[in-house]
Amino acid sequence: MLPVTTILFYIFSAILLGAATLVVTARNPVYATLYLVLVFFNAAALFILLGAEFLGLILILVYVGAVMVLFLFVVMMLDINLARLKEGFLSYLPLGLAIAILGVLELAAVFWTSPLGHVPAPAAIPANADNTRVLGVLLYTQYLYPFEIAAVILLVAIIAAIALTLRRRAGTKTQNIGAQMAVRAKDRMHLVDLREPKS
Amino acid sequence: MHDFQNMAWWAILWSLIKIVIVVVPLLLGVAYLTLAERKVIGYMQVRLGPNRVGFKGSLQPIADAIKLMFKEVIIPTNANRFLFLAAPVLAFVPALLVWAAIPFGPGVAISNMNAGLLYVLAIAGLGVYGIIVAGWASNSKYAFLGAMRAAAQLVAYEIAMGFALVGVLMLAQTLNLAKIVEAQAGGGFWSWYWLPLFPFFLVYFISGVAETNRAPFDVAEGESEIVAGFHVEYSGMAFALFFLAEYANMIFVSLLTTVLFLGGWYAPINTPLLTWIPGIVWLLLKTAFLLYVFLWIRATFPRYRYDQIMRLGWKVFIPVTIAWIVIIGVALETPLRAILR
Question: Of all helices (H) and strands (E), which one includes residue B20?
Answer without folding.
Answer: helix B2-44
